[in-house]
Specification:
The chain has about 425 residues and is of the alpha+beta class. It has helices at about 55-60, 70-85, 110-120, 150, 215-230, 235-240, 250-255, 270-275, 325, and strands at about 5-10, 25, 30-35, 40-45, 50-55, 90-95, 100-110, 140-145, 160-165, 170-175, 185-190, 200, 290-295, 300-305, 310-315, 320-325, 335-340, 345-350, 355-360, 365-370, 375-380, 390-395, 400, 420-424. The chain folds into three domains: about 5-95, no CATH class; about 100-240, Alpha-Beta Barrel (ADP-ribosylation fold); about 250-424, no CATH class. Helix content is about 15%, strand content about 30%.
Amino acid sequence: MRDDARVSSGQAGDDDTVEDAGRTVMAPGGDVLLVPDAEGTWSGEGPAGRGRGDVETVLRACARDPDPEWVATVSTALEHEAARGHGDGRAALLVSRGTDEVRFHVTRSANRESVLRHGLDPRRMTLPGIAGNPEPEWDGVFLGDEGEESWFRTFVEEETDVWAVDVRGLWLVSDPSSSGGRDDRWVIVPGRVPPERLALVAAGGDAGRGGDVDDQADTAELVAGSYELFVGEPDPGEWGPRPMASEVDPRLVQRLAVFRRPRRHDDALPPDAARMLGDSGLGANPALARKARDAPDGSPLFLVPGTDAIHLVGRGGSGSGDDIDHALTGEGIGFEDCVGPRGGRILGLLPDDASDVTVTLADGAVVPLAVEGNVYAYDFLREARAVPQRVDLRLGGVSVRLDPPIPDDFVRTRCGPPGWHEAR
């Protein structure tokens, strides 16, 4: 099937079909009608039949030959809006995979150093967004078509930067603020955009000091040099997907004991996890994977090497990829929602010299965390007192504190949005 679909709001009718007060997922293989109920489940009807359950279950049952990643992206978008109440203005949802186009993001110039180092990461947001929101509206990055960036730069008086974003292969979700979501003039990239996909194309001044970009030769050179990568032939090693890793990187072997043992039969990735890694763009090779440990609920957690990258993979292929050098700092920590009937999970990768790992909960309790296969994992209930506030550890004799990227409204929301979140 084609990698795009639209979801539009239906109108309540006189009959008892699932289209009453529901939404229509418009896909090339035929429309799927979806209706949410008060219990947080969905009913659906489409060319392949009817279904009931969570969004993914219904789409798989009702759509004709649905792409698994398209299903997961549509599901996450709908569940996110249902959990946070962001879908009231949405008339349609268009989900598509980026091709050769370039999109643009506007941010304050004060964020430039962070963007160059970490990419566009909503979990690192400390200043209000361009639209004035004090915290991320989505677990994702808002992008606009060429020409839209000039309008967004008028939103704030401070200096702003414009970043071009290589969206090839990324899933794009239409922004409900743009024609009610009927077009993809404004889109959202779920999760984080890494720095290797970015180019600074307009700088508002020397970040943190103000000033005119025309008087700053170094910044002007960066802008011109970066944009040239987009208008010319991109370097696949720099801007496109990385080639699949042929061997485990020596840095991983040196710092992670799990890669110093031979592969076993239980190191084989489940098929759904292997499929999800296929489009990571970081050269993940399932044949090099190691099972790190079982999570507290008994599900396996894997470490999968890529090209200058390492993935920590959990249920159904959900997970996080990171560059090796950053991963080995131990500073990455992930959060997964909807673990068990209604809880969450924090987890992370640690090198061999990590020790004394603990998690501090909202009620003040300090819980020791075991590191197995260079991975720690902690499951918790959807209760205010049980939410982790910090993870402390020692790395090479130095104390390190990590702040879990758990949404502020985690306790107040239903189990959602499903998926994985990461702080870097």
